């Protein structure tokens, strides 16, 4: 394992400590509950939005805390759901009179932690709603999932409800918006390599020198099939066909197009995928209204990418265009 | 080689095409000269700033074209200087009555291309100045360099002169600012793995399973020495000591601290390096005034990182804090 790591057990705390030190004006790290929150704490004039999941998907979600996106993130250890009591404590810390919205990618462990935390917080008199994200078209059930998995498309749900909450939307309104965005968001990924969890110290699964995993999950879960490595264009087509045919997206649609890097793939390659996807969408009469190329939801150091489409309407496009100030990228 | 690539010869054009398609309102791609420019062309009220270098360092420099940073980027093929006539054509296209500033990382091939292009443009009556960046403390001369190499610290020069040019600074003033920033900027990198140029199809150099290259160049050039892989904290100390002792940075200094990923290292690991570097600087009485963690200047898919410090004064800090709107990261 060739990584910048000290004690693998300290991988997540070391990262969170660095993240907070780099953003002293905007973020606070609470080691006791492994959480990252906005420095100012809950804002009584807006719904607090919290997302949690296993770590190893950075910038999701700890680096997307900030104005216009999350109010707090509650990460677990690498690829592990956060402990239920940490989610509960985060919810209490971020309680707002307008309520708390919990965003959860659809994995069984995460659902369990967040649903129990919601019950506990509600019995304390906090108004809480939970919204599950399941944008991955690759497989119906998977290693750790009943139903579809939540992957990089969670960005669009976070961004939309984050923008609406800054504008004062109610908790019910945020649930409506979040569910709407999730319902028109579809993703599919391809892994070129495995990833190496620090505590394991070796690759999570084996892929041959000329093999790819089509429809890979963000924890290295199996996808639809193993295939031979082929050209960037052909791999783009594979992801695009799966995504377009699922909703389906049709001629006349206006979409957001995201090419998300899985951690080990350079941004140069992501733009190669983007260019072909844009051409193919245009050929199908689908207009790309907004573009996202970079790392949004990763799998540690996995080489690979995912492609996400969101069907836009005026409401969604307006929320996606709203400003956000987050730590993920500083220029 | 496991990459998203079509014909390796088309790696750079395919990427640039995607970049321009993803940013139709702000960027224009001119295939004939392999250049990326602001969609609006040269602005007669500001000096035009152009940076060029080999490709493979993305987001540098093609993804840092935009308001507050570059007016155009003139990339070569992967790890190859741009052709002199392309630099000349870019300079002509971007000619402004206020002049043109060429930013060049200090490599012999790049210097040659830019210096000849400057002469040709000057004989056309265009006012041009060239500024060389050489922030890498690792080695004095190297494979393709006389003197020190220009690496990730070039970001700070781009950002400072970009901000000043938006505010209307003259060409001479930009040269003064750029030289000043370069003179207080120091960088050192460590490679955990090699990188694989698409046209070569195999790793550029060999590193043993437990070996690192201390002081690696951004084209895989040798650094100071091979060493054994050790902890994140120890590798941070190695980079920090080299950088701090070089200028030197001393107690009472206020600095910008950048941890730059070399392409294959996830951002989670970069924050681990950041946290320890911040602690160590604090211990030495050096204040971190601005923080940058992410990918700024990469080496394709190399796993590794570099650490940059910039000694801040009010002028530099103000320029670094100015807004910029670039394609590199969209949130």
From TrEMBL, chains A, B:
Gene Ontology biological process: glycerol catabolic process
PROSITE patterns named in the record: DHAK
GO cellular component, one term: cytosol
Enzyme Commission numbers on file: 2.7.1.121
Domain DhaK span(s) in chain numbering: 7-329
Gene3D superfamilies given in the database record: Dihydroxyacetone kinase, domain 1, Dihydroxyacetone kinase, domain 2
Keywords: ATP-binding, Kinase, Nucleotide-binding, Transferase
Listed name of the protein: Dihydroxyacetone kinase subunit DhaK
Record carries keyword Transferase: yes
Classification via InterPro entries: DhaK_1, DhaK_dom, Dihydroxyacetone_Kinase
Xref: NCBIfam families: dhaK1
GO MF assignments: ATP binding; glycerone kinase activity; phosphoenolpyruvate-glycerone phosphotransferase activity
SUPFAM superfamilies recorded: DAK1/DegV-like
UniProt key word Nucleotide-binding: yes
UniProt cross-references to Pfam families, sorted A to Z: Dak1
């Amino acid at each position: 394992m060739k990584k910048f790591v000290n004690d693998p057990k300290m991988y997540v705390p070391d990262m969170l400590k660095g993240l907070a030190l780099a953003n002293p004006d905007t973020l606070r790290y609470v080691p006791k509950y492994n959480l990252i929150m906005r420095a100012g704490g809950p804002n009584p004039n807006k719904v607090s939005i919290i997302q949690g999941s296993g770590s190893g998907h950075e910038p999701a979600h700890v680096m997307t805390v900030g104005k216009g996106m999350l109010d707090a993130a509650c990460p677990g250890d690498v690829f592990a759901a956060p402990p239920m009591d940490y989610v509960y404590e985060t919810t209490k810390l971020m309680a707002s009179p307008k309520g708390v919205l919990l965003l959860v990618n659809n994995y069984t462990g995460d659902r369990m932690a967040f649903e129990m935390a919601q019950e506990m917080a509600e019995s304390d008199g906090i108004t809480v709603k939970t919204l599950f994200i399941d944008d991955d078209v690759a497989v119906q059930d998977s290693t750790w999932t009943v139903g579809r998995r939540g992957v990089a498309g969670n960005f669009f749900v976070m961004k939309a409800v984050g923008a609406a909450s800054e504008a004062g939307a109610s908790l019910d309104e945020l649930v409506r918006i979040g569910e709407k965005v999730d319902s028109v968001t579809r993703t599919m990924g391809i892994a070129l390599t495995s990833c190496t969890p620090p505590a394991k110290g070796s690759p999570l699964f084996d892929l041959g020198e000329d093999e790819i995993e089509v429809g890979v999950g963000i924890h290295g879960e199996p996808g639809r099939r193993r295939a031979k490595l082929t050209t960037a264009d052909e791999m783009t087509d594979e992801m695009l066909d799966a995504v377009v045919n699922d909703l389906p997206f049709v001629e006349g649609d206006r979409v957001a197009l995201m090419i998300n890097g899985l951690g080990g793939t350079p941004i140069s390659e992501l733009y190669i995928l983007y260019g072909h996807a844009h051409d193919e969408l245009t050929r199908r009469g689908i207009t790309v209204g907004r573009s996202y190329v970079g790392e949004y939801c990763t799998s540690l150091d996995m080489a690979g990418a995912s492609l996400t489409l969101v069907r836009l309407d005026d409401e969604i496009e307006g929320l996606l265009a709203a400003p956000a100030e987050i730590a993920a990228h500083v220029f």
